[in-house]
Specification:
Blueprint (H helix, E strand, L loop, with lengths): L12 H4 L5 E3 L3 H7 L1 E2 L10 E6 L9 E5 L3 E5 L3 H11 L4 H12 L8 E3 L2 E5 L10 E3 L3 E7 L3 E6 L3 E5 L3 H29 L12 H19 L6 H12 L3
Parallel strand pairs: 1-11, 2-5
Antiparallel strand pairs: 3-4, 3-8, 4-5, 6-7, 7-8, 9-10, 10-11
Length: 247
């Protein structure tokens, strides 16, 4: 996806002019000092560009949110709780589809980004069981190597965030997420063609219906298993075909 096709964050100059242009996120206590406390925050897919996990610090807050319109916010909500709301807004097939493509592309399952259209939020650490920091690719205009294992993320060619992650890792994560974003968008296009009858699904050209059916299969399997029923995979498949049709 070219840079001109990416969504650009709109910065509220009245708010962001009060902050320095360079913020060192390796020193989160200094960021907490200038952040505005909020009891409840819902991340914006279009304005949130960095989510800093501070749950390991000796402080009341668990997360700091960088928002183009609201500035720097802090909350007792964890980054895991905040990101979970992203997944709630997505379709049922969304996470299975991302995991499917991560496996196909050889990308670690522990750092799957949130991708929806031109929105892409990337975890800095493993996000399967605990909270971690996340950064958005929207309005990310550069990433610069610094001394040690640090990278300077540049947003909108104006705001610089120093993060405790090497440039090598950031480059790999950006490459992986871009690959997933491309194939996911292509898959959605194929899904539309499949729905309209222009393109039949195939193993060589998988579309989202496969992820739908995989999710439905797992749900039916769980329902049978939780009721201590004796069943085979053929029983599950037959039930699936009955309700979704046979392909």
């Amino acid at each position: 996806m070219s840079n001109r096709d990416k969504r650009h964050i709109s910065f509220n100059d009245a708010i962001w002019s009060k902050y320095p242009n360079l913020l060192d996120l390796t020193k989160p206590l200094s960021i907490l000092a200038v952040a505005q406390a909020r009891h409840f925050i819902k991340l914006s897919m279009h304005h949130t560009f960095y989510l800093l996990d501070v749950s390991q610090l000796n402080c009341v807050e668990n997360a700091i949110i960088f928002d183009g319109q609201q500035g720097i916010l802090k909350t007792t909500q964890t980054t895991r709780e905040l990101i979970r709301e992203y997944w709630v807004q997505a379709d049922l097939w969304h996470r299975p589809s991302l995991k499917y493509w991560a496996q196909k592309l050889g990308i670690t399952q522990h750092k799957i980004p949130f991708i929806k259209g031109d929105v892409c939020l990337i975890p800095l650490g493993a996000n399967t069981q605990k909270s971690t920091s996340w950064f958005s690719t929207a309005s990310l205009t550069d990433h610069i190597k610094r001394t040690g294992k640090q990278t300077e993320l540049v947003y909108d060619q104006r705001l610089r965030l120093i993060i405790p992650v090497s440039t090598k890792v950031i480059k790999r994560q950006l490459t992986d997420s871009q690959q997933m974003q491309v194939v996911l968008n292509q898959t959605m296009a194929r899904q539309l063609q499949f729905i309209t009858g222009e393109l039949p699904p195939s193993e060589s050209s998988p579309s989202l219906w496969q992820c739908d059916r995989t999710l439905a299969y797992n749900l039916i399997h769980f329902a049978f298993q939780s009721r201590d029923l004796v069943f085979t995979s053929q029983d599950v498949q037959q039930t699936l075909n009955t309700y979704l049709g046979k392909f």
